[in-house]
Amino acid sequence: MSYLHACLLRKRTMLIVRSFTILLLSCIAFKLACCFSSNISSLKALPLVGNLDFEHVHEASKDFGNRYQLIPLAVLHPKSVSDIASAIRHIWMMGPHSQLTVAARGRGHSLQGQAQTRNGIVIRMESLHPQKLQVHTVEDVPAPYVDVSGGELWINILHETLKYGLAPKSWTDYLHLTVGGTLSNAGISGQAFRHGPQISNVHQLEVVTGKGEILNCSERQNSDLFHGVLGGLGQFGIITRARIALEAAPTMVKWVRVLYQDFSAFIKDQERLISADNKLDYVEGFVIINRTGLLNNWRLSFTPEDPLQASQFKSDGRTLYCLEVAKYYFKLDNKDVISQGVKETLSELSYISSTLFTSEVTYEAFLDRVHVSEVKLRSKGQWEVPHPWLNLLVPRSTVKEFAKGVFGNILTDTSNGPVIVYPVNKAKWDNRTSAVTPEEDIFYLVAILTSAVPGKDDGVEQILKRNQRILEFSEAAGIGLKQYLPHYTTREEWRSHFGAKWDNFVRRKSRYDPLAILAPGHRIFPKAPYDQFTPISLSSDYNLPLSG
Ligand SMILES: Cc1cc2nc3c(=O)[nH]c(=O)nc-3n(C[C@H](O)[C@H](O)[C@H](O)COP(=O)(O)OP(=O)(O)OC[C@H]3O[C@@H](n4cnc5c(N)ncnc54)[C@H](O)[C@@H]3O)c2cc1C
């Protein structure tokens, strides 16, 4: 009898607990639904020139990395800067308890959801065209520049500025990226050794902060914001306009590739070429591991200096290093003089003599070269695959040790994407910006750009494990690298990434985006009350949960 009684009692208790849990969950769901619908209705009431789309949000939940997916509440298609300011100001006014965040999206070429937000607002920056691109030539100003929207693609800037015989000085290898997207990182390519990254070639920005203020900034005006935003991973404001330095645009490019078997010889020549007295305009390089018929493939777009010897060269089973350089020239230049100059420069280098290949292309075709590969890969369905890429900045003092441990050892195949290696001069980077680099006069960009192509041996998981091994090896060997396009999951890792710049980074966040509304996809700052980011807590060892 007492046993039956106990059973009944337990059943009743379980029923009460279950009912209570259901009630609690329903309350939470109801509260969330209320919160959502009040978010939606208040956002719908915003007076915008453009529009907020609550339905077609899936495109904004994807990126080039193809591994992370956060579904936003809405996508803002801004038609004016005030659309962006109104939306952010509205969320700022909702205060710390609203969970709404805002992610600016360029072309979504991020790798790990950096341009995404869960249940927040994605701003499609490409919709923002407040005015046409405005090119200012030497007839109007002492040094030419162009004013562009933060959502403009670099390829469009190239096309427009070329009409005036001008072009930006510093590029990325691929131009179908947006101004705001690359300036939030750095924007590095083979011209960076001379001109610095793209963030070193900007005169002025218009920015919408995390409080919805529209501010102009430059070296002279709001300089703290200006430097903070450059390389600032979108944390302090949305770049709505940028003034970019221009130079006279060359018309043609002499493009050269040569091979090395020895990494030390390869980087010795690269470093010679990035020194001040070098006459070349572009210096890059890449690693080739165990490729069959490599030089035959080059023949499609390059001409061998010595066709017979080149045809006898075998790349199979070898780890090789390709130096890639370019010399720009103008219509009125004497082509023979240019060729002679390049020849002289090459004669000082120690590459494998049978591997000299050259090509002549227009400046435009040279800069847009990666787009040709994009078109090919798209046609084979190999563009929209996962891209577990790893981009690193490796100090000069440890790059040989890095190469010894990684190339041909941890990394044993380069057939599923290039591995780019080239040095840049730190002197061309402005230390006041948020961009993080190794503290040496020269450091190397090492970009391991492997695609996870279906049906090939290496799947995403294997590639990610390999990347992890590279990072662990580097840590153990004291390589002292910094990630470019960084991705971390803990506050401690972010702090260590920024190193001496961390306190300033946190201070700027508390000043320009105190509620942590912006760029939640990096998961550096959770959306939190104002005083959690005040400078008081800068040095204390607080560990905030990750947002996003
Ligand atoms: C094929 C390929 C080649 C590449 N080559 C190079 C290279 O040679 N050199 C190099 O440096 N990088 C290179 N990149 C990386 C590129 O710089 C990044 O992908 C960068 O994120 C730019 O892409 P996006 O314009 O699509 O920006 P998104 O991926 O959309 O955004 C990137 C970050 O910037 C923020 N953001 C976007 N717009 C703004 C804005 N207006 N204001 C503030 N924040 C904003 C986003 O919220 C996000 O955090 C390459 C990428 C690809 C896919």
UniProtKB/TrEMBL annotation:
Gene: LOC104704111
Homology family: Belongs to the oxygen-dependent FAD-linked oxidoreductase family.
Pfam families xrefs: Cytokin-bind (PF09265), FAD_binding_4 (PF01565)
Keyword Kinase (UniProt): no
Key words, A-Z: FAD, Flavoprotein, Oxidoreductase
Designated name of the protein: cytokinin dehydrogenase
Organism whose genome encodes this protein: Camelina sativa
Domain FAD-binding PCMH-type as annotated: residue spans: 68-249
Gene3D superfamilies from the UniProt entry: 3.30.465.10, FAD-linked oxidases, C-terminal domain (3.40.462.10), Uridine Diphospho-n-acetylenolpyruvylglucosamine Reductase, domain 2 (3.30.43.10)
